[in-house]
Amino acid sequence: MAAVARVGAMLATGLPADRTAALDSISSWRTIDDDPGTVSAILAAAARSGPVDHADPTDPAVRLVEVLWSAAHLVDLAEVEAVYLVARDPVRRALLDLLARRRDPAGLAVLRSVVGEHGWTDHLPLPTPGLLSAVLGHPQAAEFAGDLGRLLVRPGWESHAAALLARLAREVELPAAVLAGLLDLIEPLLIEAIGQCDEAFGCRNGGEASPWVWRTRNRVRLVLDVLESFDAVPGPGGPTGGGERVVDLLVRTLGSADPVVGAWGVAALAVRGVEVPWDRVWMTSHEPVPRSVLLERLDRVGLLGPVLDGSGRHRDGVWRAEADLVSWLARPGELGCVPAEVEHVATRITEVSADDAGFHLFRFRTRAPHWASARGWMVGAAGLYREDGTVPDGVVRVAVSQYDCEDTASVEEHFDAMAAAVDER
After folding, report:
1. CA 397, CA 290: separation in Å to the nearest integer?
2. Within 13 Å of residue 420, how many CA atoms lie on the same side as its CB?
């Protein structure tokens, strides 16, 4: 108690020297007394820790709350709520983690009241990596699934909530009723996100690199990440977790005007053992960008051959290399668009783990008014791929271009320049 009082007094002065001494003292606390009075004193000190020092990233109030993480069961929940209401965002994040570390129903109830739709959502801070992940170890963690589902639509929380919800579905056995409730939340989100993606892709809004296209695709991807996590969830319909209802939601992606969304759907359905109509496979593999997405996801799970061959679609290393190169060129910060024309120039074969793998050179160009149109034909390369389009084990596939004009060097010199650029990465 006395040490906490001294630290609180030093922090209250706002003097840099006192602040440094207080931080040193907090760092020396390896354990705290099991006295509720000491715990209350630490929370009180965190609430009145003084102004923020922007020159020092270490926040004493956060450090004080972190001291309590190992004794989360001792904190008074009413005091935590009181401190949360007046605290800064970094302190609120530490308090949320403090509640997540409790292993009792009361702590989870308070956490849900703070995070949930009927709680103090106006005070909810933006997430940081790891925030709330401790709740996955709670005996009643499944009760938190609905709250995470509602956070999927909260600005700034979409990605973090989707990642937590996917982990929850994989690591915690979700009851059928909870799973059904999640699907009720996810279904309208997916339909809305696909609609936005169709609109963004239809307008094109500057092409593949348009922020609108990327943002709307990301919304669809986050929802699909959650749906695909239900593979491991026991529920109605068997081990796929939700059975036919999840499949029905995934099938909706096949009707999207955006072929990238369709490619995600084809891959997700193939993983579930659903036979995708051959025309959908052809549609999603026709353009280079969705083709790159589709082949990468199928190859990762060993289904590239069964899906492509089953649809009658030809596949080879050149076809995949073109897709990966164009997808890379379309990124913001590179060309920012799909090239107007792409042609295969040559292949350099390399032996990798007793496999022959190809590094493929292409030439490409854009049209005015794009900044690169004046350069004419430029060169880029992608690899390494086997003849059937798969990636050899232990190989990281790459796509690279230095936007050199084709006529400035020979084919072998371009290959050497591409290889050197890859080595520099």
Report:
1. 17
2. 7
Q: Beta-carbon neighbour count of residue 314 at 10 Å?
A: 9
Neighbours of 339 (CB within 10 A): 22
CB environment 207-224: b (16+ within 10 A), e (fewer): ebbbebbeebbebbbbbb
Give helix 36-47 / helix 77-86 axis angle, nearest 10°: 10
**How do residues 1-40 score in pLDDT, each as one tens digit?**
677 777 767 777 767 777 778 777 777 776 676 777 788 8
At 262, which amino acid appears? G
pLDDT digits (tens, 9 = 90+) for 123-175: 889 999 999 999 998 989 999 999 999 999 888 999 999 999 999 998 888 88
State residue 66 phi and psi, 5-degree precision.
Answer: -65, -30
Q: What does residue 258 show for φ and ψ, rounded to 5 degrees?
A: -90, 115
Distance in angstroms (rounded) separating the CA atoms of residues 275 and 266: 9
Radius of gyration of the chain (CA): 27
* Spatial separation of the C-alpha atoms in residues 307 and 123, rounded to whole Å: 48
Q: What dihedral do alpha carbons 207, 212, 214, 216 form, nearest 10°?
A: -130
Q: Where does residue 29 rank: exposed (0-12), middle (13-18), buried (19+ CB within 10 A)?
A: middle
Which residues 6+ apart lie within 8 Å of 273 measured at CB? none
Q: Scan for tokens 């350069």, then name that residue.
A: 375
**347: β partners:** 360
Global pTM value? 0.83
